[in-house]
Write a structure and sequence with these properties.
The protein is α+β, with helices and mostly antiparallel strands. The protein has one helix spanning 33-50; strands at 2-9, 24-30, 53-57, 61-65, 70-73, 78-81, 83-90.
Amino acid sequence: MYTIIYMKADYEPWWKFEGWEAFIQTNETFETEEQFESALQRKLQHFRSTYDNEVTKEGGFWAFWSEDESAFCEACDDDVQIYHGIITLKSES
């Protein structure tokens, strides 16, 4: 099984802080590697054309953002950057 998770949070997806699952926007599962790769490439292309910045980590995490997209953080009394994160998972089943 192959999974693509899209999350939107005020941190990059590789941090996976406690409760990160609450920020999941979509969770797609694929039976074959071909379906998974095709969907991943479409999703990455969409995010690359939508956001100005991209960072990849450990081959299975992508973070996208634009400098003008932020949210106010009451706890830190400041604006925080919003990140659009892609996480890929491959399970041996």
